[in-house]
Structures are given as C-alpha cells and as structure tokens.
Amino acid sequence: MAEKAGIVFAHGLWADGSCFSKLIPTLQAEGHTVFASQHGLDSLESDVACVTRTINHVPGPVVLVGHSYGGVLLTKAGTHDRVGALVYIAALCPDEDETAQEQQDKYARTPIFEHVEVGDNRVWLRESGTAHFCGDLPAAEQKLVLATGAAPVADLFDQQVPGTAWRTKPSWYIVANNDHTVNPDLERAGAERMGAKTVAVDSSHVPMLSHPDVVLDVIRDAAKSL
Q1: What is the dihedral of CA 206, 207, 208, 212, to 10 degrees?
Q2: At a CB cut-off of 8 Å and minimum separation 6, what does 110 contact?
Q3: In terms of DSSP bridges, do strands 171-176 and 122-125 run parallel, antiparallel, or are they unpaired?
Q4: CATH fold of 6-224, please?
C-alpha cells in the first residue's frame, strides 16, 4: 500500500495531460505517485479504458481528478475499486441515464461553441476561442493551450458507457465562476446533485492553470480523506 494516495488526472477537450503541469510537480514533491491519462478523445469507451489503465498503474488508494470532459471519465472510470475520492474541476458529471450532451442541453449554451470548427470529423478550437476557454491566462500560455489541445471526435458527447461513480464515492467540485465553456450553473447544480464538497473560484474554464493553489488545496483535502 502506498504511503500516500496516488493521483490520476483526466484531461478534457482541447487539452492533454500537460494542462495539469502546474499541479503535478508539487504533488510529486509531497510524496504522491502521479500520472495523467493521455487519452485520445477518440471515443468515450476508449478514453474510459485509458483512464482505467492509468489507475491500474498507480499504487495504493487513488484520488481521481478530472477537468471538463474529464469529469465524464471520472464518473465512468471512478467506479474502479481503488478509487477512493473524485475531484471535479469545472467538469461535466452526467447521471447514468444522460449523456454529456444531454446534461449540457439543460443549461444556456456557452460562448465557446461559436469558436469551434469541424474538420476530419474532429472538433477544433479556433484561436479566437482561447479567450472563452482560458482567457485569464497570459497570452503566451493561451497559445500553448491552443497548440497542445487534442481535438475530440464530433459525436463524443453523445456517446454513453455505464457508470456513475459519484453516487457511491466521496466527491469534491471546483466551480469556475467565470467559465465560458461549461456553464457555471451546470457546475453548481452538478456539485449539489452529487453532494460534493464545493469550492468556487473566480476563474475561466482552466482553474488548474490560472488558480493552481486553489486546486492543489482541494486535491490535498481529498487525498487526506483516504
């Protein structure tokens, strides 16, 4: 058994594991084994399988942390028997009987969707969209986010696999008050529905990059619970 909880990260759309780069070194220095799932956004099933493989690779009880669409992966892969806590960052968290798109459709459409385009059956974020995705980052960091972001298959949010981990696992939720990508009302309602311990921050969609200290404190709290 690991001395401290392992940490597994799951990224969302227009991102890869590097979106957690301001968190990982600190958590490693504090003694946690940390891995970020590098799923390809090719299908919900394959992304969940990638997160599950990553969980299998990390020793001890695991805190599973997901950003945005990564919250869907937490909800599905988090049923793993070694996952002891879930941390949602401005994340989707559909129930068993709803897809990620159906959860989003219950709330007002956010500005980000006016700044995407479909090519090769992938949904690409335009440069103009970074203001709505990560607009509280310096310009150079916004360009890096755009350059390293993976584009999802066009129907990813309509796909479904079983699993609703937040119904049986303790959950934490970071609400991004100034989010233009996932509706903050969805975030607040999702956190309330799952009974999550909730922290709100005046952030864009990427609090792990714009407010890493806030996110680190939440992850530490979740890890202590194990």
Answers
A1: 150
A2: 132, 179, 180, 181, 182, 183
A3: unpaired
A4: Rossmann fold (3.40.50)
Give Cα 127 to chain centroid, integer Å. Answer: 21
Express each pLDDT in 84-97 by its tens digit. 999 999 999 999 99
48-83 pLDDT, tens digit per residue, is 999 999 999 998 899 999 999 999 999 999 999 999
Contact 125, 151 (CB under 8 A): yes
Tokens of 34: 């940390």
Helix or strand or coil: residue 165?
helix
What is the DSSP secondary-structure string of 132-163? HHHTTS-HHHHHHHHHHPBPPBTTGGG---S-
d(CA 185, CA 183): 5
Residue ranges of the domains in the chain? 6-224
